[in-house]
Amino acid sequence: MPVVWNQIQCWQAIRSGMAKKTVNYVCTECGWSGGKWYGRCPECGQWGTIEEFHEAPAATGARTPAPGRTSRTPISVPNVQSAAKPITSISTDTVNRLPTGFGEFDRVLGGGIVPGSVVLIAGEPGIGKSTLLLETAGNIAKSVAAAHSRTPDGSDSEPHDAHAGTHDSVLYISGEESQAQVRLRASRIGAVEENLLLAATTDLSTVLGLIDSVRPALAIVDSAQTIVSQDVDGISGGSTQVREVASALIDSAKSLDVPVLLVGHVTKDGSIAGPRTLEHLVDVVCQFEGESQTALRLLRAVKNRFGPTDEVGCFDMSGEGIEEVRDPAGLFLSSQNEPVEGTCVTFTLDGHRSLAVEVQSLVTNSVLPTPRRAVNGVDPSRIAMLVAVLYRHGGISLLQNDLYISTIAGGQAKEPGCDLAITAAMASAALNKPIAKNVCAIGEISLTGQVRPVPRLEYRLREAQRLGFTKAIVPATQKPLKMEGMTLAPATNLKDALAFLHLAKQRH
Protein backbone atom coordinates (compact mmCIF):
# COMPACT_ATOMS: atom_id res chain seq x y z
CA MET A 1 0.00 0.00 0.00
CA PRO A 2 2.75 2.55 0.77
CA VAL A 3 4.30 1.78 -2.65
CA VAL A 4 1.04 2.52 -4.47
CA TRP A 5 0.57 5.73 -2.50
CA ASN A 6 4.08 6.87 -3.39
CA GLN A 7 3.42 6.19 -7.08
CA ILE A 8 0.24 8.27 -6.96
CA GLN A 9 2.10 11.15 -5.31
CA CYS A 10 4.85 10.87 -7.92
CA TRP A 11 2.40 11.05 -10.82
CA GLN A 12 0.65 14.03 -9.25
CA ALA A 13 3.97 15.82 -8.88
CA ILE A 14 4.87 15.13 -12.51
CA ARG A 15 1.49 16.33 -13.79
CA SER A 16 1.59 19.49 -11.69
CA GLY A 17 5.07 20.28 -12.97
CA MET A 18 4.17 19.88 -16.64
CA ALA A 19 3.56 23.10 -18.58
CA LYS A 20 -0.06 23.35 -19.56
CA LYS A 21 -0.94 24.67 -22.97
CA THR A 22 -3.87 27.05 -22.63
CA VAL A 23 -6.26 27.59 -25.54
CA ASN A 24 -8.00 30.95 -25.88
CA TYR A 25 -10.07 32.52 -28.62
CA VAL A 26 -9.29 36.06 -29.79
CA CYS A 27 -11.23 38.44 -32.02
CA THR A 28 -8.97 39.76 -34.76
CA GLU A 29 -11.13 42.87 -35.14
CA CYS A 30 -11.40 44.28 -31.61
CA GLY A 31 -9.05 42.08 -29.54
CA TRP A 32 -11.73 40.41 -27.36
CA SER A 33 -10.55 37.14 -25.80
CA GLY A 34 -12.37 34.27 -24.11
CA GLY A 35 -12.33 30.56 -23.55
CA LYS A 36 -15.16 29.73 -25.97
CA TRP A 37 -15.48 30.07 -29.73
CA TYR A 38 -18.26 32.22 -31.19
CA GLY A 39 -19.33 32.71 -34.77
CA ARG A 40 -20.02 36.35 -33.96
CA CYS A 41 -17.82 38.40 -31.64
CA PRO A 42 -19.78 39.27 -28.46
CA GLU A 43 -17.84 42.55 -28.15
CA CYS A 44 -17.84 44.18 -31.62
CA GLY A 45 -20.50 42.05 -33.34
CA GLN A 46 -18.34 41.09 -36.35
CA TRP A 47 -18.85 37.66 -37.92
CA GLY A 48 -16.04 35.19 -38.55
CA THR A 49 -13.36 37.10 -36.66
CA ILE A 50 -12.83 34.69 -33.73
CA GLU A 51 -9.61 32.71 -34.10
CA GLU A 52 -7.96 30.12 -31.87
CA PHE A 53 -4.94 31.35 -29.93
CA HIS A 54 -2.53 29.00 -28.16
CA GLU A 55 -0.77 30.52 -25.19
CA ALA A 56 2.81 29.36 -25.02
CA PRO A 57 4.16 27.85 -21.77
CA ALA A 58 6.42 29.87 -19.54
CA ALA A 59 9.98 30.15 -20.81
CA THR A 60 12.62 28.03 -19.09
CA GLY A 61 14.70 30.06 -16.68
CA ALA A 62 12.27 32.94 -16.49
CA ARG A 63 11.78 34.62 -13.16
CA THR A 64 8.77 33.46 -11.17
CA PRO A 65 6.06 36.12 -11.17
CA ALA A 66 4.83 37.56 -7.93
CA PRO A 67 1.60 36.27 -6.39
CA GLY A 68 -1.37 37.52 -8.38
CA ARG A 69 0.75 38.19 -11.46
CA THR A 70 -0.61 36.37 -14.51
CA SER A 71 1.85 37.48 -17.23
CA ARG A 72 4.12 34.80 -18.68
CA THR A 73 6.57 37.30 -20.20
CA PRO A 74 10.02 36.92 -18.61
CA ILE A 75 11.47 39.93 -16.82
CA SER A 76 14.68 41.35 -18.32
CA VAL A 77 17.07 44.10 -17.25
CA PRO A 78 16.78 47.15 -19.56
CA ASN A 79 19.85 48.29 -21.47
CA VAL A 80 21.17 51.84 -21.64
CA GLN A 81 18.94 52.81 -24.58
CA SER A 82 15.72 51.51 -23.00
CA ALA A 83 16.44 52.66 -19.45
CA ALA A 84 14.02 55.12 -17.86
CA LYS A 85 15.11 58.78 -17.98
CA PRO A 86 13.74 61.98 -16.45
CA ILE A 87 11.41 63.59 -18.97
CA THR A 88 13.20 66.92 -18.52
CA SER A 89 16.47 65.41 -19.76
CA ILE A 90 14.99 64.22 -23.07
CA SER A 91 15.65 66.68 -25.90
CA THR A 92 13.35 67.19 -28.88
CA ASP A 93 15.55 69.76 -30.63
CA THR A 94 16.88 67.13 -33.02
CA VAL A 95 13.39 66.21 -34.30
CA ASN A 96 13.07 67.91 -37.68
CA ARG A 97 9.88 67.27 -39.60
CA LEU A 98 10.18 66.30 -43.25
CA PRO A 99 8.12 68.57 -45.56
CA THR A 100 6.02 66.66 -48.09
CA GLY A 101 6.06 69.35 -50.76
CA PHE A 102 2.31 69.84 -50.26
CA GLY A 103 1.32 72.58 -47.83
CA GLU A 104 -2.09 70.95 -47.40
CA PHE A 105 -0.51 67.58 -46.56
CA ASP A 106 1.82 69.23 -44.04
CA ARG A 107 -1.15 71.03 -42.47
CA VAL A 108 -2.93 67.74 -41.82
CA LEU A 109 0.21 66.07 -40.43
CA GLY A 110 0.93 68.98 -38.11
CA GLY A 111 3.87 70.48 -39.99
CA GLY A 112 5.42 67.56 -41.86
CA ILE A 113 6.43 63.93 -41.38
CA VAL A 114 8.10 63.08 -38.06
CA PRO A 115 11.23 60.88 -38.43
CA GLY A 116 10.58 57.28 -37.42
CA SER A 117 6.80 57.65 -37.61
CA VAL A 118 4.37 55.43 -39.51
CA VAL A 119 1.54 57.18 -41.35
CA LEU A 120 -1.43 55.19 -42.67
CA ILE A 121 -3.22 56.67 -45.70
CA ALA A 122 -6.60 54.99 -46.26
CA GLY A 123 -9.18 55.54 -48.96
CA GLU A 124 -11.50 53.92 -51.47
CA PRO A 125 -10.12 52.28 -54.63
CA GLY A 126 -9.31 54.80 -57.36
CA ILE A 127 -9.53 57.82 -55.06
CA GLY A 128 -5.87 58.71 -55.70
CA LYS A 129 -3.90 57.35 -52.73
CA SER A 130 -1.03 55.98 -54.82
CA THR A 131 -0.90 59.12 -56.95
CA LEU A 132 -0.73 61.35 -53.88
CA LEU A 133 2.07 59.32 -52.31
CA LEU A 134 4.05 58.96 -55.55
CA GLU A 135 3.90 62.70 -56.10
CA THR A 136 4.90 63.21 -52.46
CA ALA A 137 7.83 60.85 -53.01
CA GLY A 138 8.94 62.91 -56.01
CA ASN A 139 8.70 66.16 -54.03
CA ILE A 140 10.73 64.81 -51.11
CA ALA A 141 13.30 63.18 -53.40
CA LYS A 142 13.86 66.50 -55.13
CA SER A 143 14.21 68.44 -51.87
CA VAL A 144 16.50 65.82 -50.31
CA ALA A 145 18.73 65.78 -53.38
CA ALA A 146 18.99 69.57 -53.32
CA ALA A 147 19.84 69.55 -49.61
CA HIS A 148 22.58 66.92 -50.00
CA SER A 149 24.06 68.62 -53.06
CA ARG A 150 25.08 71.58 -50.90
CA THR A 151 27.98 71.59 -48.45
CA PRO A 152 27.87 73.61 -45.20
CA ASP A 153 29.74 76.48 -46.90
CA GLY A 154 27.09 76.65 -49.65
CA SER A 155 29.16 75.14 -52.44
CA ASP A 156 28.11 72.16 -54.54
CA SER A 157 29.22 68.78 -53.24
CA GLU A 158 30.42 65.81 -55.25
CA PRO A 159 27.66 63.52 -56.58
CA HIS A 160 27.31 60.24 -54.74
CA ASP A 161 25.37 57.03 -55.00
CA ALA A 162 21.74 57.19 -53.84
CA HIS A 163 22.07 53.65 -52.50
CA ALA A 164 24.72 54.66 -49.97
CA GLY A 165 22.21 54.77 -47.14
CA THR A 166 22.64 58.38 -45.99
CA HIS A 167 18.95 59.40 -45.99
CA ASP A 168 19.42 61.06 -49.39
CA SER A 169 16.89 58.97 -51.31
CA VAL A 170 13.22 58.00 -51.24
CA LEU A 171 12.15 54.35 -51.44
CA TYR A 172 8.80 53.48 -53.05
CA ILE A 173 7.78 49.83 -52.65
CA SER A 174 4.73 48.65 -54.59
CA GLY A 175 2.98 45.37 -53.99
CA GLU A 176 0.23 46.12 -56.49
CA GLU A 177 2.09 47.37 -59.58
CA SER A 178 5.29 46.53 -61.41
CA GLN A 179 8.24 48.90 -61.59
CA ALA A 180 7.37 49.77 -65.20
CA GLN A 181 3.79 50.63 -64.28
CA VAL A 182 4.90 52.89 -61.44
CA ARG A 183 7.43 54.52 -63.78
CA LEU A 184 4.69 55.31 -66.31
CA ARG A 185 2.56 56.98 -63.66
CA ALA A 186 5.56 58.90 -62.32
CA SER A 187 6.27 60.22 -65.83
CA ARG A 188 2.66 61.34 -66.22
CA ILE A 189 2.60 63.32 -62.97
CA GLY A 190 6.18 64.60 -63.18
CA ALA A 191 7.63 62.65 -60.25
CA VAL A 192 10.71 61.19 -61.95
CA GLU A 193 13.84 61.80 -59.84
CA GLU A 194 17.24 60.11 -59.88
CA ASN A 195 17.16 59.37 -56.15
CA LEU A 196 13.59 57.99 -56.17
CA LEU A 197 14.09 54.23 -55.90
CA LEU A 198 11.32 51.86 -57.04
CA ALA A 199 10.84 48.27 -55.94
CA ALA A 200 8.04 45.80 -56.66
CA THR A 201 7.65 42.99 -54.13
CA THR A 202 5.06 41.44 -51.84
CA ASP A 203 7.50 39.71 -49.47
CA LEU A 204 7.82 41.34 -46.05
CA SER A 205 11.41 40.17 -45.53
CA THR A 206 12.44 41.79 -48.81
CA VAL A 207 10.68 45.02 -47.85
CA LEU A 208 12.47 45.16 -44.49
CA GLY A 209 15.78 44.34 -46.15
CA LEU A 210 15.36 47.16 -48.66
CA ILE A 211 14.59 49.69 -45.95
CA ASP A 212 17.57 48.53 -43.89
CA SER A 213 20.04 48.60 -46.80
CA VAL A 214 18.90 51.85 -48.43
CA ARG A 215 18.14 53.82 -45.23
CA PRO A 216 16.01 56.31 -47.19
CA ALA A 217 14.71 59.67 -46.05
CA LEU A 218 11.22 58.25 -46.59
CA ALA A 219 9.84 54.79 -47.32
CA ILE A 220 6.44 54.28 -48.96
CA VAL A 221 4.75 50.88 -48.91
CA ASP A 222 1.77 50.35 -51.22
CA SER A 223 -0.03 48.61 -49.63
CA ALA A 224 -0.41 46.94 -46.22
CA GLN A 225 -2.92 44.43 -47.59
CA THR A 226 -0.63 43.12 -50.36
CA ILE A 227 2.55 42.48 -48.34
CA VAL A 228 2.90 38.92 -46.99
CA SER A 229 5.07 37.52 -44.21
CA GLN A 230 6.30 33.94 -44.67
CA ASP A 231 6.61 33.51 -40.89
CA VAL A 232 2.88 33.58 -40.15
CA ASP A 233 -0.10 31.78 -41.63
CA GLY A 234 -2.92 33.42 -43.52
CA ILE A 235 -3.56 34.96 -46.90
CA SER A 236 -2.49 38.46 -47.91
CA GLY A 237 -4.85 41.07 -46.56
CA GLY A 238 -5.99 38.82 -43.71
CA SER A 239 -6.06 40.04 -40.14
CA THR A 240 -3.01 38.03 -39.07
CA GLN A 241 -0.92 39.10 -42.06
CA VAL A 242 -1.86 42.78 -41.83
CA ARG A 243 -1.04 42.86 -38.12
CA GLU A 244 2.33 41.20 -38.68
CA VAL A 245 3.22 43.51 -41.59
CA ALA A 246 2.29 46.63 -39.65
CA SER A 247 4.20 45.53 -36.54
CA ALA A 248 7.34 44.74 -38.55
CA LEU A 249 7.26 48.04 -40.43
CA ILE A 250 6.75 49.98 -37.21
CA ASP A 251 9.71 48.24 -35.56
CA SER A 252 11.86 48.98 -38.61
CA ALA A 253 10.80 52.63 -38.72
CA LYS A 254 11.52 53.21 -35.02
CA SER A 255 14.88 51.42 -34.99
CA LEU A 256 16.21 53.00 -38.22
CA ASP A 257 14.55 56.41 -37.71
CA VAL A 258 13.01 56.13 -41.18
CA PRO A 259 9.45 57.45 -41.63
CA VAL A 260 7.07 55.12 -43.45
CA LEU A 261 3.95 56.03 -45.41
CA LEU A 262 1.65 53.02 -45.55
CA VAL A 263 -1.31 52.68 -47.91
CA GLY A 264 -4.42 51.02 -46.49
CA HIS A 265 -7.54 49.70 -48.19
CA VAL A 266 -11.06 50.33 -46.94
CA THR A 267 -14.09 48.05 -46.75
CA LYS A 268 -17.52 48.60 -48.29
CA ASP A 269 -18.72 50.52 -45.24
CA GLY A 270 -15.73 52.90 -45.40
CA SER A 271 -13.72 51.48 -42.47
CA ILE A 272 -10.07 50.51 -42.83
CA ALA A 273 -9.62 46.89 -43.92
CA GLY A 274 -7.86 44.56 -41.51
CA PRO A 275 -7.80 44.31 -37.73
CA ARG A 276 -8.69 47.30 -35.60
CA THR A 277 -5.26 47.04 -34.00
CA LEU A 278 -3.74 48.38 -37.24
CA GLU A 279 -5.08 51.85 -36.44
CA HIS A 280 -3.83 51.58 -32.86
CA LEU A 281 -0.31 50.59 -33.89
CA VAL A 282 0.48 53.36 -36.38
CA ASP A 283 1.21 56.95 -35.36
CA VAL A 284 -1.03 58.77 -37.83
CA VAL A 285 -4.20 57.67 -39.64
CA CYS A 286 -5.40 59.80 -42.56
CA GLN A 287 -8.53 59.32 -44.64
CA PHE A 288 -8.37 60.35 -48.31
CA GLU A 289 -11.93 61.14 -49.36
CA GLY A 290 -13.80 62.42 -52.38
CA GLU A 291 -16.50 61.67 -54.90
CA SER A 292 -15.37 59.70 -57.94
CA GLN A 293 -17.47 61.98 -60.17
CA THR A 294 -15.68 65.14 -58.98
CA ALA A 295 -12.03 66.20 -58.89
CA LEU A 296 -12.10 67.42 -55.29
CA ARG A 297 -10.21 65.33 -52.73
CA LEU A 298 -10.09 65.87 -48.96
CA LEU A 299 -7.41 64.54 -46.62
CA ARG A 300 -8.45 64.24 -42.96
CA ALA A 301 -6.43 63.18 -39.93
CA VAL A 302 -8.42 60.64 -37.93
CA LYS A 303 -5.56 59.98 -35.51
CA ASN A 304 -2.37 62.00 -35.04
CA ARG A 305 0.14 61.55 -32.24
CA PHE A 306 2.18 64.54 -33.39
CA GLY A 307 -0.46 67.10 -34.34
CA PRO A 308 -4.14 68.03 -34.39
CA THR A 309 -6.91 65.77 -35.65
CA ASP A 310 -9.26 68.56 -36.73
CA GLU A 311 -7.40 69.66 -39.85
CA VAL A 312 -8.39 68.98 -43.44
CA GLY A 313 -6.38 69.34 -46.64
CA CYS A 314 -7.97 70.10 -50.02
CA PHE A 315 -6.62 68.70 -53.29
CA ASP A 316 -7.68 68.76 -56.93
CA MET A 317 -7.32 65.62 -59.05
CA SER A 318 -6.38 66.08 -62.70
CA GLY A 319 -4.75 64.16 -65.53
CA GLU A 320 -1.35 65.58 -64.55
CA GLY A 321 -1.63 64.42 -60.95
CA ILE A 322 -2.79 66.02 -57.73
CA GLU A 323 -2.62 69.73 -56.96
CA GLU A 324 -3.28 71.30 -53.59
CA VAL A 325 -6.09 73.81 -53.22
CA ARG A 326 -4.88 76.47 -50.80
CA ASP A 327 -8.10 78.51 -50.88
CA PRO A 328 -11.15 76.24 -51.29
CA ALA A 329 -13.57 79.13 -50.72
CA GLY A 330 -15.53 78.94 -53.96
CA LEU A 331 -15.46 75.19 -54.51
CA PHE A 332 -18.97 74.59 -53.18
CA LEU A 333 -20.69 77.65 -54.67
CA SER A 334 -22.54 77.88 -57.98
CA SER A 335 -21.43 80.25 -60.73
CA GLN A 336 -24.88 81.81 -61.26
CA ASN A 337 -24.96 85.58 -60.85
CA GLU A 338 -28.73 85.96 -60.52
CA PRO A 339 -30.59 84.71 -57.43
CA VAL A 340 -32.52 81.47 -57.92
CA GLU A 341 -35.31 80.14 -55.72
CA GLY A 342 -34.45 77.14 -53.56
CA THR A 343 -30.82 78.05 -52.84
CA CYS A 344 -29.11 79.37 -49.72
CA VAL A 345 -25.45 79.62 -48.65
CA THR A 346 -24.11 78.63 -45.25
CA PHE A 347 -20.65 78.29 -43.72
CA THR A 348 -19.53 75.04 -42.14
CA LEU A 349 -16.52 74.16 -40.03
CA ASP A 350 -14.20 71.47 -41.35
CA GLY A 351 -11.34 71.28 -38.89
CA HIS A 352 -9.91 74.77 -38.51
CA ARG A 353 -11.36 75.81 -41.85
CA SER A 354 -14.63 77.52 -42.61
CA LEU A 355 -16.08 76.46 -45.96
CA ALA A 356 -18.92 78.08 -47.87
CA VAL A 357 -21.51 75.50 -48.95
CA GLU A 358 -24.50 76.24 -51.15
CA VAL A 359 -27.62 74.21 -50.37
CA GLN A 360 -30.14 73.66 -53.17
CA SER A 361 -33.73 72.52 -52.72
CA LEU A 362 -36.45 71.48 -55.16
CA VAL A 363 -40.09 71.09 -54.12
CA THR A 364 -42.65 69.51 -56.48
CA ASN A 365 -46.17 68.15 -56.21
CA SER A 366 -46.14 64.46 -55.37
CA VAL A 367 -48.15 61.82 -57.23
CA LEU A 368 -47.06 59.06 -54.85
CA PRO A 369 -48.90 57.87 -51.73
CA THR A 370 -45.69 58.53 -49.79
CA PRO A 371 -43.88 61.68 -50.97
CA ARG A 372 -40.32 61.17 -52.12
CA ARG A 373 -37.35 62.48 -50.11
CA ALA A 374 -33.98 62.47 -51.91
CA VAL A 375 -30.96 64.14 -50.31
CA ASN A 376 -27.27 64.42 -51.12
CA GLY A 377 -24.63 65.98 -48.89
CA VAL A 378 -26.99 66.46 -45.93
CA ASP A 379 -28.28 64.24 -43.12
CA PRO A 380 -31.56 62.54 -44.19
CA SER A 381 -32.83 62.16 -40.62
CA ARG A 382 -32.24 65.85 -39.97
CA ILE A 383 -34.18 66.76 -43.11
CA ALA A 384 -37.23 64.91 -41.78
CA MET A 385 -36.99 66.89 -38.55
CA LEU A 386 -36.57 70.24 -40.33
CA VAL A 387 -39.60 69.55 -42.56
CA ALA A 388 -41.71 69.00 -39.44
CA VAL A 389 -40.32 72.13 -37.73
CA LEU A 390 -40.91 74.23 -40.86
CA TYR A 391 -44.55 73.11 -40.92
CA ARG A 392 -45.15 73.54 -37.19
CA HIS A 393 -43.29 76.81 -36.55
CA GLY A 394 -43.01 78.33 -40.05
CA GLY A 395 -46.45 77.57 -41.42
CA ILE A 396 -45.06 76.03 -44.63
CA SER A 397 -46.17 72.47 -45.30
CA LEU A 398 -44.07 70.08 -47.39
CA LEU A 399 -45.75 66.94 -46.10
CA GLN A 400 -47.50 66.24 -49.43
CA ASN A 401 -44.63 67.31 -51.69
CA ASP A 402 -41.63 65.56 -53.17
CA LEU A 403 -38.47 67.10 -51.75
CA TYR A 404 -34.99 67.04 -53.27
CA ILE A 405 -32.02 68.58 -51.44
CA SER A 406 -28.40 68.64 -52.58
CA THR A 407 -25.16 70.57 -52.20
CA ILE A 408 -22.84 71.96 -54.87
CA ALA A 409 -19.75 69.96 -55.96
CA GLY A 410 -20.08 67.29 -53.30
CA GLY A 411 -19.94 69.66 -50.34
CA GLN A 412 -21.07 68.46 -46.92
CA ALA A 413 -23.74 70.30 -44.93
CA LYS A 414 -24.30 67.74 -42.18
CA GLU A 415 -23.46 69.75 -39.08
CA PRO A 416 -26.32 71.33 -37.08
CA GLY A 417 -25.08 74.82 -37.98
CA CYS A 418 -26.46 74.26 -41.51
CA ASP A 419 -30.07 73.84 -40.31
CA LEU A 420 -31.07 77.44 -40.94
CA ALA A 421 -29.75 77.48 -44.51
CA ILE A 422 -31.40 74.15 -45.34
CA THR A 423 -34.74 75.32 -43.96
CA ALA A 424 -34.44 78.63 -45.81
CA ALA A 425 -33.72 76.79 -49.07
CA MET A 426 -36.80 74.59 -48.59
CA ALA A 427 -38.99 77.60 -47.82
CA SER A 428 -37.61 79.48 -50.83
CA ALA A 429 -38.39 76.55 -53.12
CA ALA A 430 -41.87 76.06 -51.68
CA LEU A 431 -42.82 79.75 -51.99
CA ASN A 432 -40.93 80.24 -55.28
CA LYS A 433 -39.10 83.25 -53.81
CA PRO A 434 -35.33 83.56 -54.33
CA ILE A 435 -32.88 84.61 -51.63
CA ALA A 436 -30.46 87.42 -52.45
CA LYS A 437 -26.99 86.31 -53.56
CA ASN A 438 -25.23 88.39 -50.91
CA VAL A 439 -27.12 86.75 -48.00
CA CYS A 440 -26.03 83.70 -45.99
CA ALA A 441 -27.67 81.89 -43.08
CA ILE A 442 -25.91 80.23 -40.13
CA GLY A 443 -27.62 78.57 -37.18
CA GLU A 444 -29.03 75.43 -35.61
CA ILE A 445 -32.79 74.91 -35.33
CA SER A 446 -34.31 73.09 -32.37
CA LEU A 447 -37.58 71.17 -32.24
CA THR A 448 -39.23 74.18 -30.61
CA GLY A 449 -38.31 76.38 -33.58
CA GLN A 450 -35.57 78.26 -31.73
CA VAL A 451 -32.40 79.31 -33.58
CA ARG A 452 -29.51 78.11 -31.46
CA PRO A 453 -25.89 79.38 -31.45
CA VAL A 454 -23.16 77.52 -33.33
CA PRO A 455 -19.44 77.14 -32.52
CA ARG A 456 -17.02 79.80 -33.79
CA LEU A 457 -19.69 82.00 -35.34
CA GLU A 458 -17.40 85.02 -35.66
CA TYR A 459 -14.84 82.93 -37.56
CA ARG A 460 -17.50 81.85 -40.05
CA LEU A 461 -18.70 85.41 -40.49
CA ARG A 462 -15.20 86.66 -41.26
CA GLU A 463 -14.95 84.07 -44.04
CA ALA A 464 -18.38 85.14 -45.34
CA GLN A 465 -17.27 88.76 -45.35
CA ARG A 466 -14.09 87.85 -47.23
CA LEU A 467 -16.18 86.20 -49.96
CA GLY A 468 -18.36 89.28 -50.44
CA PHE A 469 -21.46 88.47 -48.38
CA THR A 470 -22.97 91.64 -46.92
CA LYS A 471 -25.85 90.21 -44.85
CA ALA A 472 -26.08 87.17 -42.58
CA ILE A 473 -28.95 85.61 -40.65
CA VAL A 474 -27.40 84.48 -37.36
CA PRO A 475 -28.62 83.25 -33.94
CA ALA A 476 -29.45 85.92 -31.40
CA THR A 477 -26.77 85.83 -28.69
CA GLN A 478 -26.40 87.56 -25.35
CA LYS A 479 -23.37 89.45 -26.68
CA PRO A 480 -24.29 91.10 -30.00
CA LEU A 481 -21.72 90.67 -32.75
CA LYS A 482 -20.55 93.52 -34.94
CA MET A 483 -18.91 93.04 -38.32
CA GLU A 484 -17.75 96.15 -40.16
CA GLY A 485 -19.22 96.26 -43.65
CA MET A 486 -21.66 93.43 -42.92
CA THR A 487 -25.26 93.55 -41.70
CA LEU A 488 -26.15 90.91 -39.11
CA ALA A 489 -29.79 89.92 -38.56
CA PRO A 490 -30.06 88.09 -35.21
CA ALA A 491 -32.97 85.65 -35.18
CA THR A 492 -34.47 84.22 -32.00
CA ASN A 493 -36.68 81.69 -33.75
CA LEU A 494 -37.50 80.32 -37.19
CA LYS A 495 -40.27 82.86 -37.77
CA ASP A 496 -37.83 85.74 -37.28
CA ALA A 497 -35.33 84.16 -39.67
CA LEU A 498 -37.94 83.63 -42.39
CA ALA A 499 -39.17 87.20 -41.94
CA PHE A 500 -35.66 88.57 -42.40
CA LEU A 501 -35.38 86.54 -45.62
CA HIS A 502 -38.86 87.70 -46.78
CA LEU A 503 -40.02 84.08 -46.73
CA ALA A 504 -42.74 84.38 -44.10
CA LYS A 505 -45.96 82.85 -45.42
CA GLN A 506 -48.72 85.38 -45.75
CA ARG A 507 -51.79 84.48 -43.71
CA HIS A 508 -55.19 85.22 -45.25
Automatic annotation (TrEMBL):
One GO-annotated biological process of the protein: recombinational repair
Keyword Electron transport: no
Listed GO CC annotations: cytosol
Region named Lon-protease-like: 402-508
Composition bias type Basic and acidic residues, residue spans: 150-165
SUPFAM superfamilies per the UniProt record, alphabetical: P-loop containing nucleoside triphosphate hydrolases, Ribosomal protein S5 domain 2-like
GO terms of molecular function: ATP binding; ATP-dependent DNA damage sensor activity; ATP-dependent peptidase activity; damaged DNA binding; serine-type endopeptidase activity; zinc ion binding
RecA family profile domain ranges (all copies): 94-266
Keywords for the protein's UniProt record, in alphabetical order: ATP-binding, DNA damage, DNA repair, DNA-binding, Hydrolase, Metal-binding, Nucleotide-binding, Stress response, Zinc, Zinc-finger
Short sequence motif RadA KNRFG motif: positions: 303-307
Region (Disordered): 145-165
Cited function: Plays a role in repairing double-strand DNA breaks, probably involving stabilizing or processing branched DNA or blocked replication forks.
Family to which this protein belongs: Belongs to the RecA family. RadA subfamily.
Name under which the protein is recorded: DNA repair protein RadA
Species assigned in the record: Bifidobacterium animalis subsp. lactis CNCM I-2494
Gene: radA
